[in-house]
Structure formats: structure tokens, C-alpha cells
Amino acid sequence: MASNVCVANVDFPIPYKTIQEANSHLIEKLPQEHDALIATLPLEPFLERPFSFDQPYRLYKGVWMSEINIRGTLVMQQHFKSCRTDIFLASFPKSGTTWSKAMIFATLTRTNNSLNQHSLNTHNPHQCVPYMEVEFVTGRSQILEVIPSPRVMNTHLPYSLLPHSITESSCRIVYVWRDPKDVIVSMWYFAQKILGGADKMVTFDQLYERFYQGLNSYGPVWNHIFGYWEECKRRPEKIIFLKYEHILQEPVKYAKQLAHFMGCPYSETEENHGVVEQIVELCSFKTMKDFDVNKYGNLPTSENINVTNASFFKKDEAGDWKNHMTREMAERLDTITKEKFNGSGLQI
Ligand code: A3P
């Protein structure tokens, strides 16, 4: 692999899709060197696989992941070199990743007059900000190296599995999390869209039980949230810890916090000209879901599954769990969440 080069700062990060297309010559052979190790890892006890498709989950250092994601993680841990200017969006799946990608990308690419023709009008947020594990497992890791600085990348890895180069450098991490009860519901609908219907997957109750046992992609969810929270308390200049429900309530406040954290705070002139509100509006659910690219486009994935861009936009609400869980199910999940967060200062 080529050594990492930090390219000079530019004002306008480019959608990753554009960089990918211009650099297809950098694609390498799929890495196989970790297959022997992966084959020794504990296998999931369930037969039904609503999320890992043709790949079973295995337990790697306390984290359940599909084999393909473990392979991506191992290659990434071995080869990824972080730059000081990098910004990583970390999240547990279905916790607000798409929205956060849009907010980060729009914030870094803002100008007073470009928002009407912004790349987000024609690119899904996942085409603007790469999902690192996938890039590493599809031989495209060298393309990550040619993204102009500041690079923005996304990972679903827990803090404990991040490459040392990320944890040890002075790059920044934006972490977004969400009430685990709504994460399950979001997962349930997302899986149905990808698999082509509820009859193709486990029941909601089975999915709930698996989730409760931590057995879902990147689970258990509590360790994921907790790992970033602990590090955020230790190094608040490195990690900003955002909650989906809070951003929903006060998007402008969090848009400003995010810009400040990323080192590009809004100027007084920008604030007076309503730029923060314009960014929030551009990235809002209402605006984004109606862009053609998000209605009709698709994303290629590492598992050769057709994921539509529309599947990332269901609602922009908190509390959908009330429509899917019994009171007992919700209480049971709240109890384990409180136990796991006990004494940390974290609250659902
Ligand atoms: P629901 O499925 O609960 O409706 P992720 O991006 O991590 O996969 O998270 C998906 C969740 O974020 C979905 O929630 C989706 O509807 C919601 N979402 C996507 N874009 C959003 C936006 N711009 N604003 C608010 N929520 C958004």
C-alpha cells in the first residue's frame, strides 16, 4: 500500500464518489491474508441472519461483525494512517449516520451562495463521505489516501477497534448516538427494505432478542456508545459526542457546535446572514429525502446487495419504538441500558 500523503488544505471537500471515479486505477486485489484467523473466531449461535445476509457474524474482540467487516477492520487496523486534519464520523448503525454525514460535509463545504447547487443536491451523503470498512474490504483503501485534506470518513467500529493511528493522532472524531430502542426499530425497517420484505427476515421480536444479547452488526450497542463516551470525557477536544434526539430538538445549536469542533466556526457575518439555518435546512430530512438522488439512486455495498438511497430516509422522529414494542420490552431494554451506563453520566 502507498504511504499516506496529507494533501494541502482545500476549501471545498469533494464528494468521495468523484474521487473514487477519478482514481479507479488505485483499486487493489481483495485482501485475503486474514481469512485463516477469521475462520477461528466464534460464530453466531442463531441461524437466521437479517443483517449479515450471506455472511455469518463472528465475535472479534468482544464485537459481533459480519466476516466481511472483520476482514475490512483487520486490514484497516494494519494499514490505515491518519492525518492530523482528518475528521471521522463514528456511529453505531442506524443512529443518524446519514444525517451527520450531510451536516459535516455541508458545514465544511459551505459558502454563502453555493447551497442551492450544493453537491448534496445530487449526491447521497454516503456518496460524499466514505464508509471506511467497506473501502478496505473492496481494495479501495488507496483511494482514501488521495482524498484532499481535510478528509472526512465514516466508521461504525467501536473505539476499542479503531486503528491506533486514529486514536493516537490529533485528528477529530464526531460521534453520534441514539436511544437504542429506536435503533432497533430503524434496523428492522432498513433490513426489510434491503431484503425485500418482512417475510424474508426474522420477526421483530427475534431481532429485539438478538439486539438485547448484543448480537447485531457492531454490537453490543452499549459498549459502542460507552467506549466513545469514556474517551470523550478524557479528551473532549478529540471527540464530540452528539445525540440524535438532541439534534432533532435544536439543530441550529448543534450545527454551530459541530462547526466549532471541526475548526470552522460560523463567523458573525455568516450567522447574521442565516447560513447556519440554511445548512440545517439543506441537511434536513424534508429537503434531503426529496432530492432525486435520494429517491431513485442506489449505493454499491461490500456484500453485493442493492441498497437504495431511499432506504436511509424513513422518518425524522424520536420514539417510533412506542409503535413496535410492548411496555415490558421497552422497560427491559431501558433497564439494561441504565445498568450499562450506570455512573457514567450518560442518560438515554
Ligand atoms: P428511522 O429509521 O428511525 O426513521 P443511519 O443514517 O445511521 O442509518 O440512521 C437512519 C435514521 O436516520 C433513520 O431513522 C432515518 O430516517 C434518519 N434520517 C436520515 N436522514 C435524516 C435527516 N436528514 N434528518 C433526520 N433524520 C434522518
From TrEMBL:
<dbReference type="InterPro" id="IPR027417">
    <property type="entry name" value="P-loop_NTPase"/>
</dbReference>
<dbReference type="InterPro" id="IPR000863">
    <property type="entry name" value="Sulfotransferase_dom"/>
</dbReference>
<protein>
    <recommendedName>
        <fullName>Sulfotransferase</fullName>
        <ecNumber>2.8.2.-</ecNumber>
    </recommendedName>
</protein>
<comment type="similarity">
    <text>Belongs to the sulfotransferase 1 family.</text>
</comment>
<dbReference type="GO" id="GO:0008146">
    <property type="term" value="F:sulfotransferase activity"/>
</dbReference>
<dbReference type="Pfam" id="PF00685">
    <property type="entry name" value="Sulfotransfer_1"/>
</dbReference>
<feature type="domain" description="Sulfotransferase">
    <location>
        <begin position="85"/>
        <end position="345"/>
    </location>
</feature>
<keyword id="KW-0808">Transferase</keyword>
